[in-house]
Design a protein that fits this description.
Length: about 625
């Protein structure tokens, strides 16, 4: 249940006018110490009264705070508060000394004078016609901002969103929202169709309004994009939109023509049938294709001519390895083609191959740039290659303030070889941004397992590039000795080939088991029993024995059950599980993943661990770590 807090703002510790985030020190009746209030508001000034609705929280760094979901500020009523308010710079052309003069004369009626008779200020020494005009203008601006924020909050728009709306539309905010509230979904980050639709309902906008129908078409395409579709057949979009927003078919069809005409949606024939695309996704898909063509067919190759067979023998000797035939062929392809795809499942030597290619390019004094879509993947790439690797967002210098990448076709990256790992995670938008920032004279190697789950965003870059047959592809399929000892890996390959994995004997110590269970509840109970009883009872390999185990209390059992529900997907004939870098994610609660040895600090890796049985404690922030 939200609490309400009232008080006087003694100090504005921090305020970001771009997003409205503010940290305030507030004097609250009945409390000796000042209270820290955190929330969002368009403008805030010391001396104002504040009404905050929210909850008390304990911040690990700053202690107790009142986290406000809604902040309302009002002008102070006391002479002392008014003086502090005017002296803070809230009104332009007024400083502390002039503020003190004004309040000493008009006392509690000072703000009333500003509102109703500002010409009275001319009687005060230091205020002339020019300064008075600036004061009046600043006072009116403050008044207008408060009016806009009040309108938005009355219509259930949160303070943070209200700030973004005001920053975008300015003094025209109310007029623009009343005319077409659905424009918010296109213009304001964090506001989607559903929020705009609720606002439109409170404003009395007709449910069959052309504004709503056009927004519904774009919303439908966004919904389809969340399912992985960059584009969709037009009849399917119309049908989907009707189901989502319950608008008549003719109105939706008219809306489709309208959004195609204004350019927010692109219509393109695909095999004789009209398809619809959101303009941003269409540009990303076309731009990605153009970048692939630009890089793949640009000449010359950055590597000079040399004896490839001698280079392969040299890198084998340097790394102390024996490359398989497919790996050697991949090196030949990388040294001859500007764009190459390397794919294969776990344990087939992708990492070894990448290291070998990097050694050859580095030996020719060429600059190699390594990147991956996630921090975890980038860290693993750096560890396995011994070179610096960055996330794609860091490589492209993502700017959170604008939501854009600083590196693009106008400000390209520098390098001779670009290696992008875990490319199966890359969607069409990110792929477009990456490749457009790579110079034409560079080489690109895309590495990934095409059999992994597709990207979260729309498009399937790796799979589509392979299917296009436009760029050379090297498929690695030979499982090497160390990887073949993992039952997870061999089971994965069996499933990919349509085979049932060989069951594991109950007494066998391995990283993969098949446990038969028919109902979600029985799967939950089985997983909890495994964690509490079976795993601690195993005979651990020498050097990996845990010193002591804590029993799993009720709160941890709930976490395990929650994880089990995610695995069940509503029930199955059997539940397979493998402990191989899996991470339990919980943003809100202090949770321990699976089972934790005694005396382990939050965030500390748990040692000693058996092979491929990785766990880590997590708190507040999502944890997604892969082993050490």
């Amino acid at each position: 249940m939200p609490e309400t807090l009232h008080g006087l703002i003694e100090r504005v510790t921090y305020h970001n006018p771009e997003n409205g985030f503010a940290v305030l020190r507030v004097k609250v009746k009945g409390r000796d110490d000042l209270v820290s209030v955190v929330g969002s508001t368009t403008s805030v000034t010391a001396g104002e009264h504040v009404e905050a609705s929210g909850r008390w929280v304990i911040d690990r760094e700053h202690g107790q705070q009142f986290r406000a979901d809604e902040l309302k500020t009002t002008h102070p009523a006391s002479a002392e508060g008014i003086e502090r308010y005017l002296a803070s710079g809230a009104i332009r052309s007024l400083g502390p000394k002039l503020a003190a003069k004004i309040v000493s004369i008009y006392k509690e009626r000072t703000l009333e004078i500003f509102e109703q008779a500002p010409d009275f200020l001319l009687h005060i020494k230091g205020i002339g016609q020019g300064r008075l005009q600036r004061i009046r203008q600043s006072w009116q601006e403050q008044k207008e901002v408060r009016k806009i924020i009040l309108f938005l909050t009355e219509h259930r728009i949160t303070a943070g969103r209200a700030v973004r709306i005001y920053r975008t539309y300015g003094h025209e905010s109310i007029a623009k929202i009343k005319e077409n509230p659905y424009q918010l979904a296109d213009d304001i980050r964090g506001i989607g169709f559903k929020t705009a639709d609720e606002l439109a309902a409170t404003l009395g906008i007709d449910r069959n309004s052309p504004y709503r129908a056009r927004a519904a078409v774009r919303y439908t395409l966004q919904d389809l994009a969340s399912q992985g579709h960059c584009g969709y057949p037009e009849p399917g979009v119309v049908e989907h939109a009707i189901k989502l927003v319950e608008i008549e078919q003719k109105i939706i069809e008219d809306a489709v023509r309208s959004v195609v005409q204004d350019g927010s949606v692109i219509r393109e024939p695909v095999e004789g049938e009209p398809w619809l695309y959101l303009a941003s996704l269409y540009r990303a898909e076309v731009g990605l294709a153009q970048s692939v063509h630009r890089i793949a067919f640009a000449a010359p190759h950055p590597l000079p001519r040399f004896d490839l067979e001698k280079a392969i023998a040299w890198v084998e000797k340097r790394l102390g390895i024996q490359l398989a035939a497919a790996q050697q062929e991949a090196i030949r392809q990388a040294c001859q083609h500007k764009l190459l795809v390397i794919t294969g499942g776990p344990g087939v030597g992708k990492t070894t191959l990448v290291r070998s290619i990097l050694e050859i390019f580095s030996a020719k004094e060429l600059k190699c740039v390594l990147a991956a879509p996630t921090g975890r993947a980038a860290k693993r790439l750096a560890e396995t290659t011994g070179r610096t690797a960055k996330t794609v967002h860091r490589l492209l210098e993502f700017d959170p303030a604008t939501g854009e990448f600083k590196r693009n076709q106008l400000h390209p990256l520098t390098g001779d070889l670009f290696v992008l790992d875990e490319t199966s995670m890359v969607d069409v938008v990110l792929g477009h941004h990456v490749l457009r920032a790579i110079p034409s004279e560079a080489c690109v190697i895309l590495v990934g397992d095409v059999d992994q789950l597709p990207s979260v965003g729309p498009g399937s870059v790796l799979a589509d590039l392979i299917a296009s047959k436009v760029v050379p592809v090297v498929r690695l399929s030979e499982i090497f000795r160390q990887a073949s000892q993992s039952r997870i890996i061999t089971a994965a390959y069996a499933i990919n080939h349509g085979q049932i994995p060989t069951p594991t004997k109950a007494e066998e110590l391995t990283d993969f088991y098949f446990v038969k269970a028919n109902e979600p509840e029985s799967i939950e109970d089985m997983l909890v029993r495994l964690v509490k009883e079976r795993i601690p009872a195993l005979e651990w390999p020498q050097g990996f024995e845990p010193k002591s185990w804590q029993d799993v209390p009720t709160c941890r059992t709930k976490v395990v059950k929650r994880y089990a529900r995610l695995m069940c997907h509503g029930g199955a004939e059997g539940a397979m599980y493998g402990f191989n870098g899996s991470a339990i994610k919980d943003d809100n609660a202090f949770c321990w993943a699976l089972m934790v040895p005694a005396k382990v600090e939050v965030g500390e890796f748990i040692d000693p661990l058996p092979p491929r049985l990785h766990r880590v404690c997590c708190r507040q922030r999502t944890t997604d770590l892969y082993g050490r």
